Terminase (Sphingobium herbicidovorans), 590 residues
Amino acid sequence: MQPVWSTACPDWRERIVERRSLVPFDPLFPDEAEAALTVFKSLQITDLPYDAELGRYPTFGEVSEPFVFEFVGAIFGAYNPDTARRLINEFLLLISKKNSKSTIAAGIAVTAIVRNWRHSAELLVLAPTKEVANNVFTPAMGMVREDPELNLLLHIVENQRTIKHRVTRAELKVVAADTDIVSGKKAAFIIVEELWLFGKMPRADAMLMEATGGLVSRPEGFVVYLSTHSDEAPAGVFASKLSLFREIRDGTVTDLRKFGMLYEFPEAMIEAEAYLDPENFYVTNPNIGRSVDAEWLMGKLIEAQREGSGALQIFLAKHLNVEIGLRLSRHRWRGADSWEAAGDKTLTLEELLRRCEVVVIGIDGGGLDDLFGLCVAGRERGTRRWLFWFRAWAWPEVFTRRQSEESVLQNFVDDGSLIKVGHNGGPALEEWGDLDFEDGSSSEEDVSEIVAVIEQVKASGLLPDKGAIGLDPQGVGALVDALAEIGLVHPQVVAVSQGFRLSSAVWSMERKLKLKMVVHDGSRMMAWCVGNAKAEQKGNAVLITKESAGKAKIDPLIAGFNAAKLLEANPAAQGGNLDDFIAQMKPKAA
């Protein structure tokens, strides 16, 4: 009989605070779960002190907390022995550092090769670096060597980080990430360690797809992702997997074949910064009191707070599993604290034009290694709120010269908020030359597309007669010429002074965000740009600069400040200023 289950855990907030199980279902096939747990619990953990009295190292069964057995039971208990098919085949464990994550990965890997029945099967532990790979292989090797029965059954090839089954000839390989290594693999069981680091690697999604492709013809297999949070905002494949597993956990997406055990603080605790209270450390450290020492965490927290925001950010991400978002970015712009709450993904350009009485445009250009940022901003009828819609364009150089950001930028391309110049039906990214596009794309393709958006805004009749388009005066000559061709010149097109002269717009945005008088389109690209912005106090002015030179892009945000500078001038609405409208609505004196 087919079991009935759900991988959603909508009451996870209550469960995690009350230290209850985060697995919302019993093992689908209890006998399979029990058989695997018998193997798993017997494995010795060689990085724990040797027990002279017992004459061996402690086992998982003797020292692990229940969450470990629940997770392992869910993985192996999802296998249907009658059909040789695993009904849940993709798992994620998100947990704080030092909660035995790598050791658990090693135990799952050894259990899998023991329980596997397929001859010459491939089992793969994929790590982002050699060091991380060794963190898994070393305990796995120790588990085999310290068990007489496993030592007879399995053969270790240490220099190749490989464990071979002497009977089935199955091989468990622990490898560092390399597309050449995973290419052509037909692994039935894949364990991906430290997924957050893959999120920072270019083309990691393609590599993982290649590594997991063997499951197509091996329905008994599984993929297990293990990770702490990233020390920066989640990016790339880590961001996409994290988002998907959260939606499955919350019940907003139904996918019975995927399950995530995510040790995170509930949103209310994040908002209240309750994670800083040592009494709450257990929330994301279920192994506290065993592999995690509460006093050590307290000391490290105090030390990180003393060192400053950078050290604190890393501590929170790694040891308390707090996602590094806008509120925790190093030297953040204060508007970042309220940015996410002001997002509205339904705010399209058409919707903004419909709702606003006057609209302006901010633009920030740059070199081929920068984004070309565009912001359409308007004053909403009736509320006087500022509405913002953003887009950006990127040349091939942005992707090829900043490969560490490639997966991040590709997310924005997929969202539609970032446009690849020369990629509209043209050659693939890796085939691009510096400026030579075989598809006939103009060398000013970004300019022509930006002008097309501006033409749409102009057609709405909402641009003011003065100060309608604000430009960073550097590097926008081609755009100024193109705007003149559609009848937009000074005084509608104006230069917006940068640096400290932009301070008033920065402060205006901060204040209006705090007062909930700003609404933006809620794109991931802009959350990333805002997180990249570093605020520097210079006398009485504030400068918004890139957090790390040449790497972290903020051009669309600067375009937003340029637009805000124009809105500060209170441009007159077409057909009459809103102040006049309000005055007309007031009751007249008798």
The mean pLDDT is 87. The chain has two domains: 12-269, 344-567.
